[in-house]
Design brief:
- The protein is mainly alpha-helical and 48 residues long.
- It has a domain of 26 residues.
- It is built from 2 helices and no strands.
- The longest helix has 16 residues.
- The protein is rod-shaped and about 70 Å long.
- The protein starts with a helix and ends in a 23-residue tail after the last helix.
Length: 48
């Protein structure tokens, strides 16, 4: 961005600034988690 603005490419510099801001504010979206059941393993009743 600084290189572009120093070369008087203000439109490109503004575009790069906006892209940087978008990436900084982006939060990754994680898929919902699900429980995995293992065959042959008994479920425990209560904590010990």
């Amino acid at each position: 961005m600084r290189e572009a603005s120093s070369k008087l490419e203000f439109e490109r510099a503004a575009h790069l600034r906006d892209q940087i801001a978008t990436l900084k504010n982006a939060t990754p979206v994680m898929p919902p988690q699900r429980k995995v059941k293992y065959p042959g393993k008994k479920q425990s009743k209560g904590a010990r």
